[in-house]
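Support case: nickel (II) ion complex. Customer-provided input:
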Amino acid sequence: MPTTLTWLGHGTWLIQNGAHRALLDPFLTDSPTAPVTADQIETDLILISHGHSDHVADAATIAVRTGATIIANYEICEWLGRQGIEKTHAMNLGGTCRRPLGAIKMTLAHHSSMLPDGSYGGNPCGYLLGLPEGNVYFACDTALFYDMKLIGESGLELAVLPIGDNFTMGPDDAVRAVQLLKPRRVVPVHVNTWPIIEQDVHAWANRVRAVTAAEPVVLAPGESLTL
Ligand code: NI
Ligand code: MN
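Agent response - structure generated as follows:
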């Protein structure tokens, strides 16, 4: 059974393989571009990259309703625990855990991670998923960093990169990220949610096509790709 990845706008993804599902960075109900609300999601796992509200907003409510386990850094898991969320799995940078969906590795990200109430949110991260069809890298919120080259050396079927600029890398650095990561396909995200991160995603895709061997895939919120 192929793995399907559905972009739910901003940095939010639903990853499904048969009965196994994971939701990354749930920001739905208050997102201007999400095609669904938090109460419409079913999942077994929730992955969180960092503490900002546009990544954790709906995590607790979805976890309570669905019984999903939340994977996040140690500090975010402690914060969730103080709100009564018991099913958490704490990780830290460089670590991998194995789940029925695949291997889940927590990778570096250059960003920040304060939680919505001002609590310390630990280090931000990305995720490298080892899925049956190959490796999928979610950079999540980050600046460009040269160690993306190391992540790319694992061989990437797909990279998901922020291109919105201002809070993360912008279009220029995201093209350089594609050159370091060398994925087979690449999807731009964290873009066009608000005016401050508006970019021309099709122009970016054309640049990727011109200067890299990767195939850019531009999705609208709610659209899926299959590995
Ligand atoms: Ni952020
Ligand atoms: Mn963000």
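Residues 4-217 form a domain with the Metallo-beta-lactamase; Chain A fold (CATH 3.60.15.10).

Case will auto-close in a few days if no follow-up is received.
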